[in-house]
Amino acid sequence: MAAEAVAVSIRKVGKRFGNVAALDDVSLDIRRGEFFSLLGPSGCGKTTLLRSIGGFEAPTEGDILIEGRSVLHLAPYERPTNMIFQHLALFPHLGVRENVGFGLRMKGADRAASARRVEEALRLVRLEDYGERRVDQLSGGQRQRVAMARALVNDPAVLLLDEPLGALDLQLRLQMQEELRRLQRQLGATFVFVTHDQGEAMAMSDRIAVMNAGRLQQVGTPAEIYERPANRFVATFVGHANMIEARLTGRAAEGLAEAEGPAGLRLRGIAPPHGATDGGVLAVLRYEKLRILPHGADGEGIGATVVEKTYMGSSLRFACRTGAGATMTADTPNAMPQRDIGEGDMVRLAWSPEDVVLLTD
Amino acid sequence: MSAAAPRARDPYRWWRTGLFLYTGLFLTFLYLPLIVILLLSFNDSTSTGFPLQGATTKWYAQVLDSADLIAAFANSLAVGATAAVISTSLALLLALGFRHGVRGQSLVLNLILLPVLLPGIVGGIVLLIFFGYMEIRSDLWTTVLVAHVNYVLPFAFLTLYPRVHGFDRTLEEAAMDLGATPLKVFRHVVWPMLMPAVVATALFAFTLSFDEFIRTVFVSGHDRTIPVLFWLLVVDEIAPHLPAMAVVIILVSTALSLAAFAIGRRADRST
Ligand SMILES: Nc1ncnc2c1ncn2[C@@H]1O[C@H](COP(=O)(O)OP(=O)(O)OP(=O)(O)O)[C@@H](O)[C@H]1O
Ligand SMILES: [Mg+2]
């Protein structure tokens, strides 16, 4: 990656709070103009990493570069970043317009120019008619927009967002997701977005960094993260998958490998990197990539019995037991022909080797 | 048939009546002296007491005319205002410092609050001995002011600390994120939001100082504050304009306390 395309470079960053390693040897590059998400379970260090970029935490190890310059020695008010806080932190003693204009005022920007930019920012978040309001006279979604305008009006090199949608109800949340995405595209700005909601991360991001216990697990596009999880943690944390403990038995063509699961189940899947040819592996097969076919369908797949059928609205989930005794779960659209399959029915299960990922750790 | 419907008996009737009587007694006990003073202040007689001898406002005229009283009032106002500003500033700095969690914080906190438990008379004697030892002459702007700040500070701190402590730190971070240096964070965010609480504290501190008697009487020398003057008037002569004076003081103190209360309520709502 060309150096000038990197907005934020995290280099071997570590952060300890007493005995807790909130960040452990984290290295990643965030590209300019990209919507980048930090995804992980609660307490994995997302906020700590974000706050380290913003200047609110000092890493105990490593370096952070913004636009190619180390920012570790810079205070938050000297960094070219702006943050949207989880609880927004709007100033209650100021009106909407003063909130949005706060950053420009602190930097001593020209008054007339500031006023213009504030109006522009309010228009950008569709709040042009609310400038006179007090912030406690706004709805949750409107407050959200004020927070965005307040940050964006400063034209930051990097916008940091710490679960800003966490407090909203589902409808509003989806709406604000779209809004954020629109803003990011429109401005071409670099967004670093913290969330523990994988759906949100998938839907919004250009790339995602999955973290766990202070360590980076995988960085990639939503598709890479989902289709090619790098390890067991990513495979379990993102989406639902059949996890089958297996043993490698050999290599096959085109990057595939052969493995043998419990009860003699023969699996072929994408070979783990590092060229291992034997030893334990984990075969990962997403629920929706497992096809479930009515018994009559011939040829393909292995025989199984439906143990449990769960109705989930737009989809159906079938837990099946194979002839050899392994349990496999499949998600299908709530449509024919799967709709008519019931518990206890005989079915056939089929999948493509390209949908099976073999992992060594 | 409606006549036959028995009225439900109120099981709490006796309790209610008792409570009503009790409340009446309670309020009488609280306010009767004030009413008596008010009546006496208009009493046209040179000896303070009953029976009332007709109405006059001459005592009020005399009160507002008395040079002693005006001087004492000016003293009380000046010392009260100064003590309020000093103790509130100190309390604010202390409370702000405490937010950063210094070592031995709870010990310091207790040491600050301990003097509240000290009886006023002990405080007065201690100060008298101290000033005597330091050879500081008793005077309004030295000994009285110091005594008042010394007395008021813990209360000012107690009033202010919860507000400062409860201040949302992320607001400061947000301001800093938007380019405000620590000084600007204070000026544009912390101060405007704490100001109502600070003003309420200052008013409270003022009323405490305005009311302070025991310590003041030990260290006031020739200068008199309102309570000290009162005491002298009572001891030296049963001055007939005392009740009028008392009413004036009550009105002033009440107005100040109400103002403090109102501002405090506004502070609560805005944080
Ligand atoms: N100021 C602090 N002092 C001590 N420990 C801290 C501090 N801040 C964070 N930690 C610890 O560091 C770890 C990571 O915290 P962090 O807030 O970054 O997690 P997170 O991924 O943002 O979690 P969440 O999704 O719950 O917000 C946690 O174990 C947390 O307890
Ligand atoms: Mg967090």
UniProtKB/TrEMBL annotation, chain A:
GO terms for biological process: putrescine transport. The keyword Zinc does not apply. GO terms for molecular function: ATP binding; ATP hydrolysis activity; transmembrane transporter activity. The keyword Transport applies. One of its GO terms (cellular component) is ATP-binding cassette (ABC) transporter complex. Signal peptide: none annotated. Residues 8-238 form the ABC transporter domain. It holds the Pfam family TOBE_2. Keywords: ATP-binding, Nucleotide-binding, Transport. PANTHER family: SPERMIDINE/PUTRESCINE IMPORT ATP-BINDING PROTEIN POTA, SPERMIDINE_PUTRESCINE IMPORT ATP-BINDING PROTEIN POTA. This is Spermidine/putrescine ABC transporter ATP-binding protein. It comes from Falsiroseomonas bella.
